[in-house]
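FIELD: query
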Amino acid sequence: MLSLGVWFVSAAHAQAPWPNEDPQAWGLAIIDVETTGLDPQFHEMVDIGAIYTTLEGEELGRFFVRIHPKHPDRAGEIARSINGYDEARWEALEALMPEEAVAQLAAFHQQHAQDRRFVLTAYNAPFDRNFLEALLKRHDHALSDFYTYFVLDLPAVAWGLGVDALVNAEVARAFGLPPETSDPLKHTGLSGAEWNLALYRAMRAASSVQLEPKRDPKAQ
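FIELD: result
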């Protein structure tokens, strides 16, 4: 186990507000979390999936753990129906205690943060950010130890590309993607991160088409 006190990133490095001119120095931490409810100060994460990529969407590494919440009794029925959380099932699937999950996430991040700074990227990014921040704070870490203080919200990117929708199934349809799975036994933070990455790549492809210079027919 990696001691929680061993690993840290200086605040000056973690909170740099803007990328420098070298795109190789930046990457995306494409994240999705599953929880026991909607309030990060009351509910808890039950899993997290993360895929680290270059700015072009090339995968650098992936991470996934299930997490035993400290207060399983707070898990709402709606949340359970979405992510399949069940105390006995989590035990059988070898879920980790929160402190071990944080330690493993820190080790994974350290592996990739030697040469890059990462922007937290998610669908409805404030939700994932707030839950991850709450988990890290409970275990003596700060979100700024991992990611820049700004985030990349994928439906906001879609909106900027002219897709006036926020529900992921509608956004997926606009970019020719299937919606994320709704099967609670398959719906995990990792399946969400994979779907987020597919959407990011599709939006980049659509953006490159939109931004391609128009040819003057008279010049042909």
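FIELD: remark
Confidence is low (pLDDT under 50) at residues 1-16, 211-217.
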